[in-house]
Amino acid sequence: MKPNYQFEKRQRELEKQKKKALKALKKGGPAESAPADAGSSPTPEKTR
Fold first, then answer.
1. Of 7, 36, 6, nearest in space to 20 by CA
2. Which of 17, 41, 43, 45 would bridge with 33, disulfide CB 3.0–4.6 Å?
3. What contacts 28, CB < 8 A, 6 or more positions away?
């Protein structure tokens, strides 16, 4: 079984977005990526 680099990259990107959103919330400003983090679209890697 070979590693799924796209999935790992996506997870890192999501983690960065979460950190950015938390930082923005602590500052008091609105987080732009918070609604996008809802996970409305499933990733193709999970369905395989």
1. 36
2. 17
3. none
Residue 20 near residue 33 (C-beta atoms within 8 A) = yes
Measured distance CA(20)–CA(3) in Å, rounded: 27
DSSP assignment of 9-41, as one string? HHHHHHHHHHHHHHHHHHHTSPPTTTGGGG--S
pLDDT of residue 37: 47
Residues in the chain: 48
pLDDT tens-digit readout, 32-42: 555 544 555 55
Q: What is the pLDDT of residues 14-28, one digit of tens each?
A: 999 999 999 988 888
